[in-house]
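Pasting two entries for a bug report.
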Amino acid sequence: MINSFIWADLSTLDINDAKHFYGRCFGWDFHDIGDGYLLCEAKSKHAAGIYTMPEKFQRIGMPCFWMSYIRVEDINETVRTAEKCGAIIEVHPEAAPSGGLVALIRDPAGAGFTCYQGDDLGGKSESAQESMMVWNELHISSLEKVESFYTQVFNWNISPTDDEGRYDIHNTSGHLVGGIRLYENEIKGDKEYWGVFFSVASLRKTTDEIERAGGKVTVQQTFAGETTALAYDSQGAAFFLLESDA
């Protein structure tokens, strides 16, 4: 689906440690598809990717991070529009390991995401399948900084929900593609970011596995009637868990 989230991958410092952590916590299998890019599978379905952080990011002390991908129809046009609307283009369109083209963009508030032009990678589950990405949410301190950016670049409709400080994002077809949550910096820190949510059958069981594997789980909240939690892997990369009965 165009202008929707379809994929996420992890930029990590120790790829073997990451394989051990996510294999244990999510039950993923891993396949190297070239250039050191690992394809993660949950019950034979493509779930996410893992790769070693590029040296240029390591040199500036970039922490390990999960990255959300938005599928676009014309990546060059998307990059041009984003730049006109105040974005920083960290990586201009280039070939992706799995095929297609990718570009890394930071919105006017600094939140990073990747645009992807190509076939659907199949990494997002609409039915809350266990260990699959099910939601993407921008955590930000001010909507004014980015609302016009996302509406112009992706033609998104951003509308408030019944929960104060939370907004839904719909594409031009009316499909719910993600959300925005306003947080004070005292809660989310001084960075703006797109959070990646993975579905789990049991938050308690997954939390135990995460902690045994060297990670940690912190804040728990309720989201659309389900329980969520902020987690960190063994190298400090942040992601979210969403408990669901699928």
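Entry 2 (this is the one that rendered wrong in the viewer):
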Amino acid sequence: MARFKVGIQLHPQHCPVDDLRAAWERADELGVDSIFTWDHMYPLYGDPDGPHYEGWSLLAAMAVTTKNARFGALVSCNSYRNPEFLAYMAGTLDQLSGGRAILGIGSGWFERDYEEYGYEFGDAPWRLKQLGEALPRIEARLKKLKPAPIGPLPILIGGSGEKVTLKLVAKHAQMWNSFRPPSHFAEKNKVLDQWCEKLGRDPKEIERTCAINAADVERGVDAYLEAGAEHLILMAGAPFDEPLEQVERLLEMSR
């Protein structure tokens, strides 16, 4: 089996905040390559009005209570923050963590967040247009930050739209995330390579990450590696004991 990176996405819902902190600290101790949360205001499954925590506040805590793993949002919603300010936030996280931050971003999709927090939802093409306009502004602001980021501070774009999103990945990203199953990932990975060729980008400059679930760990991950994934991220809801055991299995597979 080819070597690959291992990450975990901790869903910030339906649990005490102390459980989240204990989970990311344990994941870091185990030796994961990455730890992620998400960027929403309400639970995405289970009780829609249950406990939920703000993602970037969690990332600030993660920056100072982990030592090794890279970390970020999988992914931030472009609509929720001014692009320059988002870059500023990411730069400060990078300083706090000693250079381990990842700036994850996507166009947004969860309508309830928009409606209840007063953001314009529009439609998918409009939100993608907003993302396309934001990315050069983010890149420009990252170059102006004082102090400059310590680490590489890669931009990770999440999404699989073939006409717009993957073109934006080829133009702007150092990391790309899509989802299971392997057949879906393989198809989108091929389209991304095609966009890289059209835009004159070396496809090897973009790390390919894929979000997987517990069943994928049980079946084995060879199909994802054959599909082009380099970095597998286990999606994990509370309680976190079992997902952390699955992460240990993934780490064993990756060696």
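Dev reply: Rendering is fixed now. As a check, the viewer should reflect this: The beta strands are 5-10, 34-37, 70-73, 76-77, 103-106, 155-158, 175-179, 207-212, 231-236.
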